[in-house]
Amino acid sequence: xxxxxxxxxxxxxxxxxxxxxxxxxxxxxxxxxxxxxxxxxxxxxxxxxxxxxxxxxxxxxxxxxxxxxxxxxxxxxxxxxxxxxxxxxxxxxxxxxxxxxxxxxxxxxxxxxxxxxxxxxxxxxxxxxxxxxxxxxxxxxxxxxxxxxxxxxxxxxxxxxxxxxxxxxxxxxxxxxxxxxxxxxxxxxxxxxxxxxxxxxxxxxxxxxxxxxxxxxxxxxxxxxxxxxxxxxxxxxxxxxxxxxxxxxxxxxxxxxxxxxxxxxxxxxxxxxxxxxxxxxxxxxxxxxxxxxxxxxxxxxxxxxxxxxxxxxxxxxxxxxxxxxxxxxxxxxxxxxxxxxxxxxxxxxxxxxxxxxxxxxxxxxxxxxxxxxxxxxxxxxxxx
Amino acid sequence: xxxxxxxxxxxxxxxxxxxxxxxxxxxxxxxxxxxxxxxxxxxxxxxxxxxxxxxxxxxxxxxxxxxxxxxxxxxxxxxxxxxxxxxxxxxxxxxxxxxxxxxxxxxxxxxxxxxxxxxxxxxxxxxxxxxxxxxxxxxxxxxxxxxxxxxxxxxxxxxxxxxxxxxxxxxxxxxxxxxxxxxxxxxxxxxxxxxxxxxxxxxxxxxxxxxxxxxxxxxxxxxxxxxxxxxxxxxxxxxxxxxxxxxxxxxxxxxxxxxxxxxxxxxxxxxxxxxxxxxxxxxxxxxxxxxxx
Lengths: 384, 293
Known about the structure:
- Chain A has 2 domains: 29-146 and 285-370, Response regulator (Rossmann fold, 3-Layer(aba) Sandwich), CATH 3.40.50.2300; 149-278, Rossmann fold.
- Chain A is built from 11 helices and 14 strands.
- Chain A has helices spanning 2-24, 45-64, 84-97, 108-121, 148-161, 177-190, 212-220, 232-244, 287-300, 306-325, 333-343, and strands spanning 31-38, 72-79, 101-104, 124-127, 141-143, 167-173, 196-203, 225-228, 250-253, 275-277, 360-361, 367-368, 373-377, 380-383.
- A 7-stranded mixed β-sheet of chain A has the order 7-6-8-9-10-13-14, sandwiched between helices. Chain A has a 5-stranded parallel β-sheet with strand order 2-1-3-4-5, with helices on both faces. Chain A has a two-stranded antiparallel sheet with strand order 11-12.
- Chain B has helices at residues 2-31, 38-55, 60-83, 91-113, 140-162, 164-174, 176-181, 186-211, 221-234, 239-260, 265-279, and strands at residues 118-119, 129-131, 136-138, 214-215.
- In chain B, a hairpin with a 4-residue loop joins strand 2 and strand 3.
- In chain B, helix 2 (38-55) packs parallel to helix 4.
- The model of chain B has no long low-confidence stretch (mean pLDDT 86).
- The chains are: A alpha/beta, B mainly alpha.
- At the A-B interface, strand 7, helix 7 and helix 8 of A face helix 1, strand 1 and helix 10 of B.
């Protein structure tokens, strides 16, 4: 009896050994496995969907043109609903699938959780849009978007340089790392600029329905402009409540406002004149943008936002890094990461979001590029 | 002048809490259970109005009516399926079941309607009242909410005091077993309580979404908790207490945000709650409970 049991155990071990071989042999097909994570459902679905679709366009383009140094790309995207726990689950699912490089995640909160995991695994990660500084702590993560502090600084400079207002109020989400990160730097930079911050009002995740008090305080303080370093869901409520109370300042936001025009049933006339800091305007006339916008519209019937552009650039960034490092798909995840990490500070790509000087990176993972802003006119984003 | 404006904001926010709190307090007062799924019934009500009004282009009043019917049926179903079998179980088991129902409704809505934020167009299209050269603005939604809240509160109080079914409810709340001995259909009475509570939830939902126009499967949960707080504040089980508790909670929240700190507004609200409960453990209008020997 004992013998039978031990034979059974041996048989079980052999079988499990075989299946282990089965999963690791995936990489022998000479392709780069790039995974993506972001919210394709949930409150931030507009971002995740844009990233997923645009990255697909970039992957298809590269594969059609013969791949990266002759290696094709396999690409798979998982939903995380803008939730840290689901994001880590998605990461594990992709690892089982054979992911070697991660393009994601899309939003800052979940990204901080996933960065912890990629740091442990030493997996190369490029995030199109997670802008928190907590994302770039392990050296294996590179950003396509500005960090939050840089968005705050750039917004204050933009408002000051272009003399958009002399009295500014800030309404921000004090329970969100993205929003409070931008606000801190904005306030710091604003001291040296030619405008005055007359009110700084907060709300939290638990009290994000009624903004009339914050708006009233801004109005009483005589603010001509309200700075909104928040996401579009709350911003759409703020615009509506400001309209109800008859307060019509200029509104200026960061990349979180991108997507406000796509909220179902939202009266887009309320967003008329809203300005936001974004690296991408779909109406730009250069050939690369026009070409990308056309492809995106044909495939998904929608005008791409900046998140789409960031994701498109993220895939091309990975391509450039692989080419610079001379990496191949048979390298293991950790070696691949080390090679690409070293290559990143040496590459420069024009991309859709690079502006005049293109995209470059610090060795820390921070991107170096010029800030740009757009304004909403007649229900569309127009470059300023 | 700003103080009055803040006060008005507080009352309009508070009236939304009050109308939700009415549903909480009624179910607690009669069935002696905390229906934590109340906030999510509100959310379902909102989606029904959103779908019928924006999707199917129904008349706003008709959509509200459909929503009330759907929520009433939903409330009775939840009661029959989830709470009735637990009538003799410990209150803790019922509480956990209620939390379970709450998550079930949220996830069902997530599945059916998706998690994307939808912008709810207010069913009240009257222009806002402007007083003192536009310095004071009272939105029409706020006026309608306060008025509706008062009507419902009076209606409920009359219903409970004057009708047979209402008096049966009072009897059941006093002593279930004795009520049964007197020939009152206890199960029927509790079902009726849930039906009314859920019907009110539909109306509360419409007003909540008209005032704060975003719609997601989670909109019911936070206002639900605040309204529960309001019900405890006013004395849970007391109908006028829920109204007063709701309005006070709204005013404290807004004034705290305006004059103390916008970051601390929730902390202030709950600190006041703790103080009130320390001084008067049954809430503002709550009756002291005499332990029977």
